[in-house]
Amino acid sequence: LYKILTWAYHHKDDDDQAAEGEELTPQSPHDISPWDANFINVDQPILFEITVAANYLEIKGLEDLCCKTLANMIRGKTPEEIRQT
């Protein structure tokens, strides 16, 4: 919970396009700020826990960050390499 609160506090002043119902602009999976990259650089089980919590708490920005990170982890890997990750 501490990690989620840390992320929320850091992003409290961000524009929230999704909350306003505006259409989001497509972003590259590599569009992760240095602060977010450092924040999400955790062990895989912790990343999964944060992802599930962000989904349950409906924190779209954090959920997107987790999904981008997971996608980057498996990008370019074979199914066997993904199983071993």
TrEMBL record:
<dbReference type="Pfam" id="PF01466">
    <property type="entry name" value="Skp1"/>
</dbReference>
<dbReference type="InterPro" id="IPR016897">
    <property type="entry name" value="SKP1"/>
</dbReference>
<protein>
    <submittedName>
        <fullName>CG12700</fullName>
    </submittedName>
</protein>
<feature type="domain" description="SKP1 component dimerisation">
    <location>
        <begin position="60"/>
        <end position="85"/>
    </location>
</feature>
<dbReference type="GO" id="GO:0006511">
    <property type="term" value="P:ubiquitin-dependent protein catabolic process"/>
</dbReference>
<dbReference type="InterPro" id="IPR011333">
    <property type="entry name" value="SKP1/BTB/POZ_sf"/>
</dbReference>
<dbReference type="InterPro" id="IPR016072">
    <property type="entry name" value="Skp1_comp_dimer"/>
</dbReference>
<dbReference type="InterPro" id="IPR036296">
    <property type="entry name" value="SKP1-like_dim_sf"/>
</dbReference>
